[in-house]
Amino acid sequence: MEAKGTTQYIEEIRHRVIRFLLIALVISIVAYIFSDVIIKYLQKPYSGTLAFYKLPEAFFVKIGIGISTGLFFAMPYLFARLSYILTSRFLTHPKRYALLLSVSACMLYFLGAFLSYAILLPQGIKFLIKLGGQSIEPMISIQKYMSFCTVMIFGMGLFFQMPLILLFLGRVGMINYRMLSSFRKYAILLIAIGAAIFTPTSDIVNMLLMAGPLWLLYELSTLLVRIFPKKT
Q1: CA–CA distance, 76 with 137 (Å, rounded to integer)
Q2: Do residues 222 and 177 touch, judged by C-beta distance below 8 A?
Q3: Cβ neighbours for 153, distance < 8 A, ≥ 6 positions apart
Q4: 86 by DSSP, 3-state: which?
């Protein structure tokens, strides 16, 4: 019976992943059609001109924009399904908690993406261009620029899930406030490593622009776990 239940559980996850990919595919096709509009929207944080240096580069940029947009807007479906699966296995009244968890996840996801687009990207781009000085004219590849934007926006949206993940683990008794407090110095190290991985450039400024909000999110998560301990 236990093996059968595990098999059904894995099969359910597989079906959800397939649906997620199908949703992402449909959105990606639509996004590819409107890729010029999306590119103009992503170009707003940078006032200069973007260029492509290889003949197929512009085409691959549009494909990349389509795929990235599809995955980005399909994530709320994945949040909703994961919320239901996790709450049904670990919490009582799963439907109520699943709705609260999925809505909160979507809000934090889009909030993180918006803050990245509205604050982190403009400030990071402005600083990096100033580093070149007045004697150096920036000639930025559109492929590199779009990759930078999508990774920053997508990455911050996902990183903003930290409070919910840690709060959920705290509610089911896997972690507590003392553990998070004692783990703080290691968390800061992991955040720095994560920021270095998700930041396309190697400069310290963009790493700090991403790591700073993540550290604040960790502190918020610690506070939430202290306020809402394990549910008895």
Answers
A1: 41
A2: yes
A3: 72, 113, 116, 117, 121
A4: helix
Quick check: 180 and 144 in contact, CB under 8 A?
Answer: no
**Half-sphere exposure (Cβ direction) of 153: Cα atoms closer than 13 Å:** 22
E strands, 88-215, are 140-141
List the one residue out of 130, 110, 129, 128 whose CA is nearest residue 118: 110
pTM, 2 dp: 0.82
Distance CA 116, CA 102 (A): 21
What CA–CA distances, in Å, run from 26 to 22, 23, 70, 77, 149? 6, 5, 7, 13, 22
- 214 and 194 Cβ atoms separated by less than 8 Å: yes
Q: How far apart are CA 155 and CA 152, in angstroms?
A: 5
59-117 per-position pLDDT tens digit: 999 999 999 999 999 999 999 888 888 787 776 777 777 888 899 999 999 999 998 89
Distance of CA 77 to the CA centre of its chain: 14
Calpha distance 32→106 (Å, rounded): 23
| pLDDT per position as a tens digit, 106-124 | 999 999 999 889 888 888 7
Distance CA 223, CA 225 (A): 5
